[in-house]
Fold:
Amino acid sequence: MIAWHRWLLVPLLGACVAACAAAGSEATVSESYGDEAVERQLLVMVRMPPVHFRPDVAYGSSYVRVGQQARRKIAQALATEYGLTVIDNWPMPAIGVDCFVMQAPDNVSPARLAERLSADPRVESAQAVNLFRALAYNDPLYTLQPSATEWHLSELHRITTGRRVRVAQVDSGVEIDHPDLVGQIAVSRDFVGSGIGSTERHGTAVAGIIAARPDNGIGIAGIAPEAHFLALRACWEAAGADGRALCSSFTLAKALQFALEQNVEVINLSVGGPRDRLLERLLDVALSRGVTVVGAVQPGVSDGFPASHHGVLAIVTGGAQDSSADLLVAPGRDVPTTLPGRKWGLVSGSSFAAAHVTGLVALLRALSPGLQPQQLRQALAPQTLSSLATDQPLIVDACAAVARTAGTCACACGTAGHAGLQGW
Amino acid sequence: MPAPAARRDTPGCRAGKFGVAGVLGLALFWCAGTVFAQLSGTLSVLSDYRYRGISLSDNEPAFQLGLTYDDALGWYAGAFVSTVESALYETHGVQAIAFAGYAWRMTSGLTVEAGADYSVVTAAPRFDYTEIYAGFAFQNITGRVYYSPRYFGSDSPAVYGELNLAQPLQDNIQLLAHIGILGSSAKPSYYMPYPASSGAVIDGAVGIGMTWQSFNLQLSWVGVNHASSAYGVTGTGNRNGVVASLSYAF
Structure:
């Protein structure tokens, strides 16, 4: 082959680079995350083969991308056959599927369609998209009620600050340039994709409790301020939901897949909704890899998901009516924290109780990286015969938990064993 | 330059071997039999075809086609064809590789695999070979070890090990890195057109990959520490250089 071919090839490839770059910058992201739109969506999982030898994918090229077109063709064929519209997709190699979001027509139930699709051999699994809600009270006066008892945080920080523990918050958008959060957020990603209003109240409040910069003369001190903190936006504030944050199965799944890719050690899920097979599978992978998952319990809904999922630490606020020795109680009322607009305020709800436990787990894992799930659970609040007999939620005692894990006195040493009797 | 003595295999015999491999692969497609199965492929143009660091296109552009079948259980098979240039034979032709194997993704995220491949280089009739391999993939890293009893027609066995990294920098941009080591005791042949060493050959690559829809564009620096008698098929071109490629995935 003569040399001019090479010189023809170089400008050709260069032109392709420019075209790709220009096209990439103009690409629009699907904005199909309105409540009504989400309720008519379903998730169709197409199997993703494991990575293997391919001579055409040499020198480390992306194995995820190769084969994606084949799966898209399968998805498009399914959509045509079942009268659906393909909206979006997201590879989830952690569970070996490519997840396609499809919109159902108005006259067909997404749940029924999901059942039919599940029986199709081209489909690995299918389900309707569920909606989840961030678990916070939105009563304006509720935040004026008496504040919670502290966790002796400054004393805990003498022993551990959660240094380098990788913590993922899967929530609504975080104001990353908030004065109390500047420099605290290592990774920020948006899995909702709308790009609108990505600074949101719930996510910013949860992030402040976990990671706010201490000792800076303003605001609050986060529980695990030296954690490697990932703010993953999977929820959005919906106008039609009293300003509450909503999330869908798909956005949550994308964020969980990313968290797994990032090797996080703790995941905070301050959201609640119905059982969701796709999310269950991703959580099972996370738990099998030793990730601690902290979930907020929806008040009065003891079987709410994901808090009720086996292996997830289920957190309630003090005074909650929930009755189960599997639940953990943490401060969740009148909690001062960061809010959008460079503000601070008081928030209440099990979301924020879960954020407390997430921060505490980061402290414990910094002290003992190899902490096993059962050891962690026992450190947070030991289950005893008497506690099991009463079947009441156990109060998390931060000082005792740190003392148990560090093997040394954490707070006022004489009281470590009794702090758990305090209420929030 | 005198052509090396022909091996026992005739071109018809080689084609037969490759055909058998292809038929076995296709049989695997049908035997596996579920409609979970996926057929995918790539069509590529490259400024230089570097095979384990060695240019098989004499530093000239090459065109490639790859097809892979994956069944629902983890079995896979496929075929790959690339244009090649042989300075030794002063001719051009194709390298064709048939491959098949089994990959298993574990809950931990680790994938392990084992398989075999068979390569034919029509431009250089001596250099077809069979290889077996085992490997792993974890997150953005893949690694594999290959063993061939007569690598590129050599009378000595060869072992090749490689590690690859594809680290996402942004959604559609990846940092690519590769390191490979070939160990072979092949002796230099009289007809080799350049001084060659029989020591380990280390090849490396560093580059950027960019994906847009079905297209993948890569720009990499690829190099090798020295020419080797294990690669008698190669020419006298540059050992190190920049390689650009554009692939269409389907």
Remarks:
- Chain B touches chain A through 77 residues (CB under 8 Å).
- The helical segments of chain B are 11-32.
- The longest strand of chain B covers residues 91-105.
- Confidence is low (pLDDT under 50) at residues 1-13, 190-194 of chain B.
